[in-house]
Amino acid sequence: MNWSVRLEDVGHRYRAGGPWVLRGVDLELSSGALLRIEGGNGSGKSTLLRLLAGIDAPAAGRLRGRPPARGYVPERFPAALPLTALGYLTHLGRVRGLSRRAAVREGAGWLERFGAERYAGTRMRELSKGSSQKVAVAQALMGRPGLLVLDEAWTGLGQPARAVLDAVVRERVAEGGAVAFADHDPARLAGTGHATVRVVDGRVAPGGAGELDGTGTPGGEGEQDGAGRGVRAALTRIEALGAPGSRMPAGLPPNAPRHLAPDGVLTLTVPAADSDTVLRTLLAARPGWHIRSLRESVPHPAPDPEDRPAPAPRPGEEGDAR
User: Fold this and answer.
1) Cβ neighbours of residue 316 under 8 Å, at least 6 residues apart?
2) What are the backbone dihedrals phi and psi of residue 36, each rounded to the nearest 5 degrees, phi first?
3) Where are the alpha helices (DSSP H) in the chain?
4) Rg of the Cα trace of the chain?
5) What are the residues facing 10 on neighbouring strands?
6) Gap between the Cα atoms of 219 and 211, Å rounded
7) Residue with the larger pLDDT of the pair 3 and 256
8) CA-CA-CA-CA torsion for 175, 176, 181, 187, nearest 10 degrees?
9) With contact defined as beta carbons under 8 Å apart, do 252 and 278 qualify?
10) Would you say residue 149 has pLDDT above 60?
């Protein structure tokens, strides 16, 4: 069955009167299509994916035509659940209309395909990051949804599981489903003929349009808060794993604090606006680096000279009128 998701002048903000995360988005995604969504941290990329998946509703404009069956892998999957891996997948399958027997069979099949079948009876909160990410991907695939939305779904997976997910995406598109995805690896799903759009400052443009400057805003002078004051750039702490004895990868920001342990664990802190570039550098290296975690700090207003208290008057300089 052919269908098409259409976003018409869509805007979104997370509270009334709050800042607009997306504005004026016009986009169409049809069955059998593969769409890559690019954008820096805080650009609105994840919000656009959430709208496509039906997790959020637009605050402005219209969104029409989503298929009833949709699968979604969030950027951060809530893995601390009181269910076993197979129990969770079975539950999701039942929610999507499968019989219990069919849900158990399909859930077990996905665990096996991603190399996690031995964890079928393990409680979710006891799984490693990599294993819980395999379950995160498997739950989105239950019932073979018409629309699959993947927000950095490859992060946390080992190389074999990444290759499996690449193959699954190609299969879904070949079967007439549609996939929208974001990933830090610029080579992800290369050669598939996918369309690309880029989210820049809450606006959507064809891929490659609107280069970001070092502040994460298009051609700007740096971020500002509502009062027009400078805002300190948010920082991202990245932890990556290479082979024991690996050397520091080339191409990292020269002044970024970093530490490479003998066991191959690399930790570095970079401005959030540079994190996509750094992740691409790590993933494109040969041999590549496995991204273990990303943590962002919350930006705080930079000190404003006008907010500083006036210096205390010197003795004899009280300045009172006489």
Assistant:
1) none
2) -95, 130
3) 45-53, 85-95, 100-113, 129-141, 159-174, 275-284
4) 23
5) 25
6) 8
7) 3
8) 60
9) yes
10) yes
Label the pairing between strands 235-241 and 258-260.
Answer: unpaired
Strand order in the sheet with 4-12: 22-30, 4-12, 60-64
Helix (H) or strand (E) holding 144: none
Instruction: List the helix and strand counts (H, then E) for the chain.
Output: 6, 13
| Run of H or E residues at 237 | strand 235-241
- List, in order, residues 6 or more apart from 35 with CB less than 8 Å away: 29, 178, 179, 180, 181, 194, 195, 196, 197
Token pair 């210096």 is at which residue?
A: 311
Q: How many angstroms separate the CA atoms of 64 and 28, rounded?
A: 10
Q: Nearest Cα to 29, choosing from 167, 241, 181, 164?
A: 181
Location of structure tokens 């395909």: 113
The span from the CA of 132 to the CA of 126, in Å, is: 9
The answer to whether the bond into 19 is cis (omega within 30° of 0) is no
Contact 134, 114 (CB under 8 A): yes
Which amino acid appears at position 254 of this protein? P
The C-alpha atoms of residue 25 and residue 45 are separated, in whole angstroms, by 12
**CA triple 250-251-256, angle to 5 deg:** 100
Q: What is the CATH number of domain 4-206?
A: 3.40.50.300
User: Is the pLDDT reported for residue 318 higher than 80?
Assistant: no
Tokens of 51: 């709208």
Q: Where are the beta strands (DSSP E) in the chain?
A: 4-12, 22-30, 34-38, 60-64, 70-73, 147-151, 178-182, 195-200, 203-206, 235-241, 258-260, 265-271, 290-296
pLDDT tens string 203-258: 998 764 333 323 333 333 333 333 333 333 457 778 888 777 778 888 887 777 88
Count other Cβ atoms within 10 Å, centred on residue 298.
Answer: 7
pLDDT digits (tens, 9 = 90+) for 51-69: 999 999 999 999 999 888 9
Burial of 94 (0-12, 13-18, 19+ CB in 10 A): middle
The amino acid that residue 181 corresponds to is F
Q: CA 45, CA 199: separation in Å to the nearest integer?
A: 6
